[in-house]
Specification:
With 145 residues, this protein is α/β, with parallel strands linked by helices. The protein has 5 helices and 4 strands, in the order E-H-E-H-E-E-H-H-H. A 4-stranded mixed sheet has the order 1-2-4-3, with helices on both faces. The longest helix has 18 residues. It starts with a strand and ends with a helix.
């Protein structure tokens, strides 16, 4: 099951692209039957979450909350991957800075968040190379611009 909630009413974009990005990312990793939720929100809400869960008192573009990232999660349903939170306000600023659409930026952030749920990270150069290569490949299969 894929659940996408948009509680940021001041920005519009094609939410279907978020669903597509999730489906393609999961399928590419043979995780078609997994459950994921994505919350599209604003800077204020993501700042609260970033402060509460990461100790960083500022907004960010994307947060990923994996259900299976520690020993305590071994008894949880393996098909429930976790939650992704995306700030549409930050996405809009980043899209403008990169000279592309908010649709494309939200797709990038969705793929990025789902990859984190699957277990990818970018703490080292080697990890970053693998993760961003996968992210770019998946992005090209969704956005053809």
């Amino acid at each position: 099951m894929i659940d996408v909630t948009n509680d940021c009413n001041n920005l519009s974009f094609d939410v279907e692209l978020v669903y597509k990005a999730i489906r393609i990312t999961l399928k590419a990793h043979n995780l078609d039957n997994c459950e994921v939720s994505v919350l599209l929100t604003d800077d204020s809400r993501i700042k609260e979450l970033n402060r509460e869960y990461r100790g960083i008192d500022s907004p960010t573009d994307v947060l990923a909350f994996a259900m299976h990232d520690d020993q305590d999660s071994k008894n949880l349903n393996p098909n429930v991957l976790g939650d992704v939170v995306i700030s549409l306000e930050t996405a809009e600023r980043q899209a403008k800075a990169a000279h592309h659409s908010i649709d494309r930026e939200v797709v990038v952030l969705t793929i990025h968040g789902i990859l984190h749920l699957i277990g990818f990270d970018h703490k080292t150069n080697k990890e970053a190379n693998v993760m961003f290569e996968k992210q770019d490949y998946l992005l090209k299969s969704i956005c053809h611009d």
